[in-house]
Amino acid sequence: MQNDLLKDKVIIVTGAFGGIGLAIAKACLNAGAQVLLHGRSERNLADALGYLDGGDRVEPFVGDVTRDNFATDLVEATVRRFGRINGIVNNAAYVVSSNVNDTTLALFREVLEVNSLAPFSIIQSALPHLAETKGAVVNIGSVNAYAGEPGLLAYSVSKGALMTLTRNLGDSLHRDFGIRVNQLNVGWVLTEKEQERKVGHGLPADWYTLISPMYAPARRLLDPMEVANSAVLWLSDSLGPVSGQAVELEQHPIIGRNPEKNLDALDIE
Q1: Where in this chain does the record put each Ketoreductase domain (predicted)?
Q2: In what helix (H) or strand (E) does residue 171 lie, and over which residues does it extend?
Q3: What letters, b where the CB count within 10 A reaches 16 and e where it falls short, cover 169-184?
């Protein structure tokens, strides 16, 4: 879908060599932006660049978000290539199964480093540039931020921390610098990694067609590009001064839902 919502804006997208991040990068390009495309390793870089077909409007950047000086290097690379920063999408995430029994402190710290601290560091490093352009930040969160699944303990807590960061900075940075900070709490999305994960759990290759309507009333999961289109809207100037908000992208209410207790509520797992 072509539009001009981000015409001539420079957007950083982390975790963007695949999945939701790559879809967001594509949507930003379609909306007229220039994109700093970040990924952890070069393994999927060639495929990502081929899919985007963005020419000189795309600049790749490879690096681990937890390494020292990562945020500074990312920001400097963006400004060196494009001259400014209008928006940041903090999408890079560490999704790992863990529960109260097997979550070590080392694992917990690693998840928090990737999912909570790295986004803060990137925003902090980019602050002067975002202030200059009156830019926008979109943090990609999860509906797990509200409590989460027992088997996603560390991940859920990290997304809750990210949501508080969003609300806190969305207030202070908007008031002091004119920078909007918002978050998309994403529900169940059919990405290539989710497909690999579920098949790895022993589910059939077409598992996503068998999900109960209790979990997917539309009889399908969200598509990455549907998340991406929402991210573009929140990066744009279309929503005016809205800041400090966490918006759920899900098919049903997250808070207060009390579904019928019948066989349709059974999970396919």
Answers
A1: 9-180
A2: helix 153-177
A3: bbeebbeeebbbbbbb
Which range marks the domain in which residue 206 is found? 190-221
pLDDT digits over 90-107, tens only?
999 999 999 999 999 999
Q: Which residues pair with 181 in a beta bridge?
A: 137
Residues 201 and 129 in one domain: no
Q: Name the E strands within the chain.
A: 10-13, 34-39, 58-62, 87-90, 136-142, 180-186, 246-249
Active-site residue 155, yes or no? yes
**Are 78 and 122 contacting, i.e. CB atoms less than 8 angstroms apart?**
no
Kind of pairing, strands 34-39 and 87-90?
Answer: unpaired
| Active-site entry in 94, 155, 208, 215 | 155
- Within 10 angstroms of residue 36's Cβ, the number of other Cβ atoms is 24
Tell me, yes or no, whether 266 lies in a domain: no
Q: Which residues contact 235 (CB under 8 A, 6 or more apart)?
A: 5, 6, 9, 11, 28, 33, 86, 87, 89, 136, 138
Among 264, 190, 176, smallest CA distance to 227 is for 190
Q: Are 76 and 196 in the same domain? A: no
Same domain, 136 and 30: yes
Q: What is the pLDDT of residue 35?
A: 98
Strand arrangement, sheet containing 180-186:
58-62, 34-39, 10-13, 87-90, 136-142, 180-186, 246-249
C-alpha–C-alpha distance, residues 129 and 88, integer Å: 11
**Rounded to whole angstroms, how far apart are CA atoms 30 and 22?**
12
| Same domain, yes or no: 134 and 195 | no
Domain total for the chain?
2
Share of the chain above pLDDT 90, in %: 88
